[in-house]
Here is the input.
Amino acid sequence: MDLDFLRIVPSIPFILNGIWVTLLFVFVSAVLGFFIGTILSFFKISNITILKWFAEAYTSVFRGTPLILQLMLIYFATPQLIGYDIPMFLAGILAFGLNSGAYISEIIRAGIQAVDKGQQEAAAALGIPYKPMMKDIIMPQAMKNILPALVNEFITLTKESAIVSTIGLLDIMRRAQVVSANTYTAFEPLLFAGLIYYILVMILTLFGKGLERRLRRSE
Here is the structure.
């Protein structure tokens, strides 16, 4: 076994620059996923059948097919279908945002339905319209309950973001692969990339645990 971590030292700044690409990618994808998931969650609890069917079908498709397949379809099929060469960053955001939206919709739906139904009945008895009731009474409680789950989804997005390297986006993983090709090494740059992902995930995990403790104290 011939390992030489000194060979990748000059390339460490290049790999580290991928952190900002990864974090920006994950953040934008998470915002898009949260927006889509919120809309779908309201569709799922609505009394309009077609909206419920659409939300359930959407969730079934995006949860039932591999994320990498969705990414490949968006990036490689878009030019074929509409003649638009979609940028790598945009293709990745769409794939991850659309996929995350399916999972977040279930998280938010469960959070809304976990709120005591008596509160909705009391609000209705007081003549509070549905939209203000959801915005001011139900959603704040639901969000408090699901914040840890949303942090976990963000952690999952961070780890799975490495998949976007398959279309060439210069994130942490892709930069490690470039260094691997240039230095004729595999273990060292990939191990370094793994260490970066691990540190990012541990930071997010500690943040999530701290958030859970704060929420328990506020109850």
Summary: DSSP finds nine helices and no strands in the chain.
